[in-house]
Automatic annotation (TrEMBL):
Keywords, sorted A to Z: Oxidoreductase
Keyword Transmembrane helix: no
GO BP: isocitrate metabolic process; tricarboxylic acid cycle
E.C. code: 1.1.1.41
Similarity comment: family membership: Belongs to the isocitrate and isopropylmalate dehydrogenases family.
MF annotations from Gene Ontology: isocitrate dehydrogenase (NAD+) activity; magnesium ion binding; NAD binding
PROSITE patterns in UniProt: IDH_IMDH
All copies of domain Isopropylmalate dehydrogenase-like, residue ranges: 10-338
Name the UniProt record assigns to this protein: Isocitrate dehydrogenase (NAD+)
Amino acid sequence: MTTEAKRTHKITLIPGDGIGPEVSGAVVKILETAGAATGVSFDWHTYDAGADAFAKTGEYIPKALYESIEQNKVALKGPVTTPIGGGFASINVTLRKKFDLYSNFRPIKNLPGLKTNYPGVDLIIVRENTEDLYAGLELMIVPGVAQSLKIITEKGSTRISKFAFEYARKFGRKKIHAIHKANIMKVTDGLFLDCARKVAAGFPEVTYAEHIVDNTCMQLVMNPYQYDVILTENLYGDILSDLCSAFVGGLGLVPGANLGLDCAIFEAVHGSAPDIAGKDMANPTALLQSAILMLRHIDEAETADLVQKALEAVYTEGKTLTKDVGGTSGTKAFADAVVAAL
């Protein structure tokens, strides 16, 4: 390895709010240390989003942030608070739709040294990211009666199915389950299944199966090891992602990637946890593992491997973990331990 920077990557950084600035600061420190060892440097273009951005610019997603993502093609995003039952639209959903980030990719895998009720889980959730009820087409028909439109298209269902099967082929995954509720929603979920089946026919080396979403929840709790790649619509994927995070220790550990043809945004799947913001308690692991996915996306595998090994070394040792996973250390101490392990 060399300490001379050979490659510089321009990355849009959205620190987020709540615990966002703390975990993103920790991750940036780790990446820059690893990059210095592998000849990689980062040019961070930092922007606020959400309520903090509105207070400064009058926009929840500033125009400059949109332009930065368009130019850099890759962003790392901390958690941003989304108001419940009112207020501005989800920043996550807005960015996904704006840049057509149609694939939400979430690997669920145990970290070494961390005891859970489900050791050895290793599955992938591939979730359609732009359609379904998350299209945001809602209206009040008459007072007391609201409606939300479920949007499923052949284009959206086909391309997310292709993503899942092409990933399985490339990385040797053997089985894909398409998750649905077509027994009730025969038209929308029926279309999703029809597209998945047509794509599956072109990948005979990958076993294809289908599970109804409520049964899937039960099956996952009873035996998550029967699943390899889970292919799902937007809403089901959001719910199943949180459920599966419990297998490996919780939302503070699970990474996420939003992938499109031109741009990609990598983010932790957890929220902004305002109750512990500024208290040096947050676990940066989820965002760090999202950053590792980002490093692989920008073809910096050596740096990604270095960070992954350092992270796993800290968990294996178990002496400098945050409280959510049974430790007593804070955000900064955890980040320093990963840096030391590099």
